[in-house]
Model the fold of this input.
Amino acid sequence: MSQQEFWNIKFLRDGFLYGLKPNTFISSKIKLLKNKTKVLCIGEGEGRNAIFFAKRGFDVTAIDASDIGLGKLEQRAKEENLNIRTLCLDLNTWEDEQKYDVIVASYLHMHKDERAALFVKIEESLLEDGYFIGEFFSTKQLDFNSGGPKDIDLLYTEDDFKRNFLYCEKDISEQEIILDEGKGHQGDACVVRVVIQKL
Done:
């Protein structure tokens, strides 16, 4: 099953699977971004993070494999009179030549052997002093039932990030948290939180 087919099945249901609020960790870092303008949201799904940034005056682009998820984002943006660019594609084929001040991701599903190439693209797409901010399910999430894949190949460790982004300043930590993100993410969870700044 392709990424598009997988996520279209999830997003086909009524409402917003992961709610309307932005990811708590990502939104908590807004103070770091005072002089930033261009934001790229990758694996953005139904658009909760993109909407959050657009409402605060950022120039936002959102990428996702699901045309259904992006359709929900586009409809919500229209209703709220927000201008958000959307790109429907698998991140493995992303060749965006734009540069961004900020790239964000929440609970991105990428196979372990695909991550290094994606992380290089992210680093290359960041402007100097730009940030990559994200929250990802830890491999320890297999012990919890609050959401996320049950395939360890789609889960993350701190080392996944520490081994990459070699020319960046990194703040990476694994934490247990309580998720409250729509119907899709509820309850105790274990995550890897990442704030990476390109030097």
About this structure: Helices lie at 3-11, 24-28, 48-55, 67-79, 112-125, 158-162.
